Amino acid sequence: MATAVMHGASTRDRDVVLHVLGDFAATVDDRPVALGGPRQKAVLARILAGSDETVSAEQVVDDVWGERSVDSTVASVHAYVSRLRRLLGGDAIPRRAGRYLIDREVVTVDADLFVDDVSRGREALARGADDAAAAILDAALGRWRGPDAFGAMREAHFLAPLAAKWEQLYVLAAEALADAHARCGRAGDDVALLHELAERDPLRESVAVRLVRALYAAGRQADALAAFERCRHALAEQLGVDPTPELRRVHAAVLAQEPLPAAVSSALPTNLPPRNRSFVGREDVLAEVSGVLDDDVRRPRAVALVGLAGVGKTELALELAHRRRRTGRVAWWVAAEDPAGTATGLADLAAALGIVAFERGEDTHAALWTELDRAPGWVLVFDNADDPALLEPFLPAARHGDVVITSRNPAWRRLARPVTVSSLRRTESVRYVVGRTGDAAAEADTLAEQVGDLPLALEQACAYIEQTGMSVPDYVELFRERRASLLLRDPLDSRPTVATTWGLAFDRLYQRSPRAAGLLEAIAFLAPDAITVATLRRLGHPEMFADELDLQDALAELLRLSLVDRDSGFVRVHRLVQDVVRARLPVGVRRRRLVEAVRACTGDGADTEDAGAHLLTVAAHAEALGTVPDGLVEALAELAGRQAARALYPAAQRVLETALRLQHEIDDAVLHGTLVCRLGEVLDAAGYLAPALDLHRRAVRILDSTLDPDDVVLAHAYNRLGHVLNCADDAVAAIDAHERALLALQKAGRDDLVPPVLVDLGYTLWAAGRLGPAGEALRAGRELLEGHGRRDDRDWAHATAGLGIVAQDGGNLEEAVSLQRTALDVFTRVCGPEHPDTAQTLDKLGYALRLSGRADEAVEVHLRAVRLLERVLGADDSRVAMTLTNLGLAYADAGRTGEAIEAQARARRIFHAALGPAHASTLLADRRLAVALAASGNQVRARTLMNAVLEVAEQRLEDNPAEQARIAADAARVFGSDTV
Description:
By secondary structure, the chain is mainly alpha-helical. The chain is 64% helix and 6% strand.
């Protein structure tokens, strides 16, 4: 009667146990539960293998299915989890932030109990509580149902490391149990257990010692000697070494039938520093390194952890050494900054192993390697070795152990497998900060962002927070204001800071290569990610680099110290490295390097896309230094223009606002007015009509007071003002502004700039209801464009779309459809399928299709336009509303009244919020909603809306008879023949 569990009831009142020791099964209230097929069991096992870490469905797919599959596979994970919850209970596998885990609060995992028991048993043994230790350890071993964790699933790649960990702990527990029994006079109790372990691993001498003791204590001398021989033979055949002294002493006592010697610790020396209690994350790197070290093809197995100083290489190596250290085996730490320190570290190890020092260091090392091969499973760490050639003579020739090297130099491939250690993942950084400070995760995330997830910087920040008692948000605010001071200040305790750690590297760089140091100083003023080598060439030419060889040599020096990373044609640098480099420079040198960075982004041959990635960063440094290098403001304006053309309006706005702040340092009125005008264009395109209109009026005032009336810059400002005035429903002022622009261009003799103005004028005339003049202006503009060889460009497409709406309002519907299709093809090709111009032309095409009687086709076209504009501009943009109100008309003509009302109501809400209740577009949505409501039978609300429209229209539309006629037609549809 487990119905409640089968339906995913709460697990908290039930005893749910997952068994992984020897098999993979589950029980609920002591009754077995079938976990389903192999794939479902594998999903559960993968989530369990995450321990207390959450696991994403995508990671489960990667590990269980073996590759990223189609979405249905991720859906399958969710389905399997749902079934497992029905089996184990709804609380067993919670989903947190879109990821899964086994909740150990409500689900018991037998391996967790085993690990805890072994820890308690070994502690009791260390205290001399032998009977208690034996009882605890015996119970721990009794939890196993077979030899392999996870049973038949043990070899799955995502389970094997965890299974091996538990199986290794099983052996340690068995050895500890044998020791406890031996102390209690019961050594013979463990013969069967130890015999099984010896058969599994005949090279494990610690097991062999205990087996020989147990057999001898049980009165089985011949079997004890045979056990010794099996181990000796395996060591000789597989490793080429003799048994350890302890095993030989036990063997000698058995041969002589003498009492066994007192138990002697088989532990070999270690000098590992204490494990870092604050260590977090890095599981991916640890798994990668372990994979390298577990590779039996290449021995000795060596890995080099390489990366920037402060990135956590040493702490990672320490954690790795503690994890891989085998009980009773050598684990030794060597400070390898220079050959003298390396030699001393190895000499200390030789002395600890009882090796008498030879006159020649090479002979001592040879004896050391021989002794290490007698005790497989050793770990040697060479910390901070920056020159492979200098470390090579000290690398062990012993084959059966692990070599871990930490280095800033990535060039280790000949001697070891290099593994790059990068900054922490954001989740790891947050976990570290929360653990150190106790502040909220969101605040920790902000701190991690500020310091680029660099472990040493996080440690420095947390130490400062602890010592001063301030909160994480307070530190973040202080860091934003005084980052250079915080990075360069002396530590409050003896621990190293970012600046002191890197200062040694910088000093070494200046000594080895002043050219490379100069390159790093200039790089410090660029955006830190993806700096192209082409930009570096311009950065250093001609002062730094005479040729390509000079540049590559300088890069090699920076790579040698991991001050930069390189990926083919790109270079990356940590932003804190940039901060410290800049902070160390005198102000004069900073300004010189800033000028070099600007020149690299704006000079001849600068790639616009590459330079654009750096201009905002360079501009921020210019603001901070209060200096504006030549060409920077103009380059920012060009960048904003490119961004606006791709509909990246927020980015363009940010760039232009930066350019305006810098421009105040230059005091150039024309440049000021031009930038204000461009910012107005961007805000207009982004849908912010009111501020755009204010900016265009301001731009005209600035330029009008500075330039001649026929200046082309002033003409452009007037034309853009006209466009925004038209959008703001002031057609009279808009037409005047366009005509002033045309007059100025004609006086200046700039016929090449006239066509876009004519096109804008044509749209404004159309909006004012003057179809004839509108068509004339649009045709004239298009013909001039064709005469200038600009057929099929963006302006030509605008003119063509405008002619389409003029033809439509003139009753030439087929011509209108044809013109809109032509314009749509050009916009799609020139601007791209996701551009707002493409979407608005789709809207115009849909309108013409509806008038042509193709309502269903019009609905689909309008829907495409709505979705595109929502993606690019946002759901509340007024251009989305215009497309929605046209969609509503198409719905109505297609007989879909309910959808028509919904579309018109939404359009009305957007227009009211964006443009106000009296704007022409708002009135248009009001009356169209009234018509849709009337068609649905809601006459009361329809007439109320239409009366409000008529009241405003009577005051505003005296000079627009075409619009008056359209309003009258809609009013007739609402009121019937009795129309006002």
